[in-house]
Design brief:
This protein has 282 residues and is of the alpha/beta class. It contains 13 helices and 10 strands. The longest helix is centred in the N-terminal third of the chain and has 17 residues. It binds D-glutamic acid (DGL).
């Protein structure tokens, strides 16, 4: 396993309900290849997007604790649903009690900070899970950062997209049907949208198909490079954290479901073979 050569420092944990966080990990490794990473996919309990606030918080908390036990000093919730439903409580309630030197960061805030560089007319479509949409995290955070009226936000839940990704159905007629279905709904709600945020880390795996069914002038924003740049920036601003991190350039992969299945799917996505181990988190 790549992680066998881990250096002595601490790791950066990357957590998602399943495969989606790989779209974040891949970009983070490009920008910050020197650090040691542990990826954890809770595939056995995915999807999170349809679950209640309490359940997502509980699952995320367990996963974060597991990553801490495995030697992570900081964890990125590479999952919008977990960022929307669990991040605030973990940051404000759990970490101060448990260990204030640890950090848990999410993907929503960096994505919103990057937004201003994209849209010409301010009409933004947010595609996300039911949980993320219902949490209203995107509209609330956008309003907090940019004030009222700067952007016209249209959110839409795409509940079929995560199961398609988790089942490796990235192409084909059935997948196309569900891509077209949600995009048609989105543009019916606001035909002037010129920027779409893929507000679920699974969705970039469907990006080639999504791009085929949106008008050519519409920009599609994935979160990987945005979160990677934001992490790089965070570590420059927080040398006390950066100093603790191992620099062996290793990546270890763990799943709560079958390791072989994860290796197959993650290998396709990362573009090289990976080794994965099963881990129990509850
Ligand atoms: N990839 C996750 C997100 O960004 C969650 C998908 C799911 O498990 O429903 O929201």
């Amino acid at each position: 396993m790549e992680g066998m050569f881990m250096s002595k420092g601490e790791n950066i944990g990357i957590f998602d309900s399943g495969y989606g966080g790989l779209t974040i990990l891949k970009e983070i490794i490009k920008v910050l290849p020197q650090y040691d990473y542990i990826y954890l996919g809770d595939n056995a309990r995915a999807p999170y997007g349809t679950r209640s606030f309490e359940v997502v918080y509980h699952y995320t908390r367990e996963a974060v604790n597991r990553l801490f036990d495995m030697g992570c000093r900081m964890v990125i919730l590479a999952c919008n649903t977990a960022s929307a439903k669990a991040l605030r409580t973990i940051q404000q309630v759990d970490l101060p009690r448990q260990d204030p030197s640890r950090r848990v960061l999410g993907v929503i805030r960096p994505s919103i900070e990057a937004l201003s560089g994209y849209s010409s007319n301010g009409h933004i479509g947010i595609l996300a899970t039911r949980g993320t949409v219902a949490s209203e995290s995107y509209p609330m955070e956008i309003e907090k950062l940019y004030g009222v009226g700067r952007f016209k936000i249209t959110q839409l839940a795409c509940p079929m997209w995560v199961p398609l990704v988790e089942n490796n159905e990235l192409t084909g007629e059935g997948t196309e049907f569900f891509i077209r279905k949600y995009l048609t709904q989105l543009f019916t709600l606001d035909p002037d949208i010129d920027t779409i945020v893929l507000g679920c880390t699974h969705y970039p795996l469907l990006r080639p198909l999504i791009a085929r069914f949106v008008p050519p002038h519409v920009k599609i924003i994935g979160q990987g490079h945005i979160v990677a740049d934001s992490l790089a920036n965070y570590l420059v601003r927080h040398p006390e954290m950066e100093r603790r991190l191992g620099c062996g350039g290793s990546v270890s992969y763990y799943t709560t479901d079958k390791a072989e299945l994860f290796e197959q799917m993650a290998g396709i996505f990362m573009g090289y073979e990976i080794e994965c181990a099963n881990v129990q988190i509850c």
